[in-house]
Amino acid sequence: MKCRYNKCIYGGGEIEKGTEVQVGKGYYMHKECARYSKTIKKIVELYLASVDSTVMPKALYQVINKIVFDRKTDPEFLLFVLKGAIAEKIPIKAPYGLYYLVKDDEKIRKWKRSQAQKIISGIELADRKKPTDYKYTPTPPKKLESIVEGL
Ligand SMILES: [Zn+2]
Q: Which residues face 29 on adjacent strands?
């Protein structure tokens, strides 16, 4: 079956049988695509609820998509820094403020630590396979620093 995520991170390919995630009636996604889609939705909801409810969701999605897909940032890292900014009352004046949040070195270090702990406890480890025919391989958190340098 085909992945129904319009931003499929594997280029819209077939989903390996038994690994698909059902996201609606007759709708399936790659597990990683479902995670991306769900996390991006959470970022948008959180931004609208806690930062600015008047922003156009389309403009917000544009910025998020650029950060996640063009600059290959794990959406969970973006969600993590957004939550942190809200908790620390860091003002975010417009969606493009998100670009600055993902460049915060201290946040990157914190995130890496939390990811390392996840790996140690065995969570998600089994899901990290990387077939070579993937159009785009999600960037593991350990590479975040090099990505950020390119921003
Ligand atoms: Zn997909």
A: 21
Query: What spacing in Å lies between the alpha carbon of 59 and ligand 1's midpoint?
Result: 23
pLDDT digits (tens, 9 = 90+) for 46-63: 999 999 999 999 999 999
Residue 78: inside a domain, yes or no? yes
Q: Is 92 helix (H, G, I), strand (E, B) or coil?
A: coil
Residue whose token pair is 């690994």? 19
Q: Does residue 76 fall inside a structural domain?
A: yes
Is there a domain that residue 134 lies in? yes
Residue 40 lies in domain: 21-149
pLDDT tens digits, residue range 71-106?
999 999 999 999 999 999 999 999 999 999 999 899
Q: What is the pTM of this model?
A: 0.75
Ligand 1 centroid to residue 6 C-alpha, Å: 8
Tell me what percent of the chain is helix, strand and coil, each rounded to the nearest 5: 55, 5, 40
Domain count, the chain: 1
Ligand 1 midpoint to CA 88 (Å): 34
Kindly state whether residue 8 falls inside one of the protein's structural domains. no
